[in-house]
C-alpha cells in the first residue's frame, strides 16, 4: 500500500505539472545532472582558490572579507543540498524523474549565480596588485610578492590553464592579445586538444581564458568593434618570466627592440619556446644554427625579416609551431621541408614571399596560413598534408587550386579563399562535398550546378560560410571567419548554367545574408530559389538585376516568407515596381503572408526609378520593428505607404499610422513624392530621432512631426530652408517648435 500511495502522490504531482516541462525535465535529467556537476566543480574550484588567498592574506583586513566568508558558507550549503538531491535521484523512482529534473534545472541557475558572486572583488584584487606594483622596487619585497603570485598560479591546479598563462608571456609587455588568435595558438600548441570540432575547441579556449580572468591573472578588454582581448598584468608577466627561466625554459625577447637574433649562448638546449616577435630583426646570419633539440615553438612574427639561412633550422627537429607572419621574408629555406614535427606554419601577410619549398614531408602539419602571402601558386606537395585541419589561402595572388587536392585533405575543418581575387579561382562542388569535417568555408564555386551540389551535400551543416557564385570586384560587405555570418553571394547568374526544378538555386536553410548582383534573369526571389525553409535570413542585398520586378510574388506558387529579415537593401533595379506583386481583387492575406517583414528593422532603396510606393497599408501590423527608412533617387515614387486597390476606390476614414521604433527617415531625390500616406492624417513615430529630406519638391508636409506633441526623441531635421518655408502645417505653432532642430542646407 505504501508503494501504491507513493506512486499515486507522484502521479498527482505529474498531472499538476505542465506537460511540456514534465517531458522536458524527465528526458533531460541526466544531461542536467551532468551540467550541474560541471558547474559545481567550477564553483568548488573557485572556493578553494578563495580560501587559499585568504590563507596567504593577499587581502588583509579588507572590508569584503566578511562577505567572502558568507559566500563560502553559501557554497557549503549548496554542496549539502546537491548531495541530498543526488541521493534522491539515485533511488531511481521513475515517476519522480520529471520533478527532480526540474529541481536540478533550478539548481544549475542557483549555482551559476553563486559562482558569479564568488570573486574576491576584481577591483579589490587589481588594487592589491597596484599596491604590490608600487612596492616592487623595494629589494626586500620582490621575494614575498612573487611567492604569493606563484601560489595563486599553483592554485590553478589544471596544467593546461598554467600552460595557457605562461604562453601569454611570449607576447610583449602590456600587449593586447586577440582572444581568437590566442586560442588558435593554444590549439596549435596542443594546450587545447581532444575536441571533436573547432567550435568546441574555441568554446574550451574561451572558458579557459574566462577562468584566468576570473582569477585576475589576465585582464580582459574589448575594442570598438567588439573584438575581445586579454592582457597580462606586468607583475603577473614578471612572475611568468621567472617561472619560464628554468622549467619549462622559454627564450623571450618580445618587443625588446632587437636588430639581431640573440647570441648563441642564449639558445640553450632545454629551451622549449622562443619568442622574438615585435622586433627589428632584418636577417638571420648564415652561420646561425642554434642547437635547440627540444624547441617546440618559434615566433619571429612582426619583424622586418627578409631572409633566413638554410642551416638555421638544422638542430630544431622537434619544432612544432613556426610563425613568420608579418615579415618581409622572400624565400623560405629548403630546411623547412625537413621539419617533420611541424604542426603549424604561419605565413600570414608575408607579402614579399615568392618561394615555399616542398611541404610533402610535413605530414604532421595541421595549420597552414598563407593569407595575404605573395606566392602565386599553392606550395608543392600540399596534397600530402593529410592531417591538415586549417588552410587559409585568402590571398589575391594565387590564381587557381589544382583539381584533386581538396579530396586528399579530408580532415579540413577550416578552408578560406579570397573571394574577389581572380576569376579563375573557382572550386568544384563535389570536391568540397567530400570534406565531411568542414566547419568554416569561404570561397567561390564554378557555377550553379556546383553550388547546388555542395549545398545538397551539407548534411552536417557548416557553422560559418560564405558561398559565392560568379565574379564581381565589388562585395557589399567584408565578412571575416570569426564573425558567424552564413552568407550566399550570387553574381551574374544565367539560366543556361543549370536548373533545379523551377528554381535556379538551392539555398542553405540557415543562410543569414543573401547578396544578389547582376542576375538579370531573376524577376523575383520566388523564381530564384525556394524560400520555404529559409527561416534565418537576416539581411538581403539586391543590386543591378535588370529583370527584377518584385522582391516577392503574391502568386500562390510563391510560399516564401521573409519573417526573419532585419535589413533589406535594393539598389539599381531599373524595372522594380514594388516589394510584393499584387493583382486586382487579391485579398490582403494573399498580398502578404502572416508575419512577413515582422522583423524588418532597416529598408534602403536607391535608384529604382519605377517604384511608385513602398509599403501597403495592410502591412503596418508587420512593420512594428522598423527603425530606418532610406529612399533615394526613385523618380516615380509617389507615396511611402499606399492604400490597397479596394481603398483606392473609396473610403474616407482617417487612419492612424504608427511606427513605434522608427528612428531615422531619409527621403532624397524623389521628385514625384506627394505624401508619406495619402489616406493617413495621423502619423505617430515616438522614437524618431533624425529626418533628412532633399529634392522632394511636391512633398508639402513632413511626416510624423505635424502633430501635437512632436516626437520627444527628435534631434535633427536636415532640409533646405526654401523648402522648409513652403511647407503646409495643420498646427502652425509646430513649425516654431521644430525650427531650432533644423539644419539647413545652403546649396542644392
Structural overview:
The chain has 748 residues and is of the alpha/beta class. Among the domains are: 2-120; 123-243, Orthogonal Bundle (Arc Repressor Mutant, subunit A); 399-517, no CATH class. The protein has a 20-stranded parallel β-sheet. A 3-stranded antiparallel β-sheet has the order 1-3-2. The model is unreliable at 1-9, 56-61, 120-124, 136-141, 476-482 and 496-500 (pLDDT under 50).
Characterize this entry briefly:
The chain is an alpha/beta fold and 748 residues long.
| CATH overall fold name of the domain at 123-243 | Arc Repressor Mutant, subunit A
**CATH homologous superfamily placement of the domain at 123-243:** Winged helix-like DNA-binding domain superfamily/Winged helix DNA-binding domain
- CATH architectural arrangement of the domain at 123-243: Orthogonal Bundle
Describe the sheet with the most strands. Answer: 20 strands, parallel
Specify the number of helices.
16
Beta-strand portion reads 15-25%
Kindly report the average pLDDT value: 83
What key attributes describe this structure?
748 residues, Arc Repressor Mutant, subunit A, alpha/beta, three-stranded antiparallel sheet, 31 strands, 16 helices, disordered N terminus, 20-stranded parallel sheet, globular, repeat
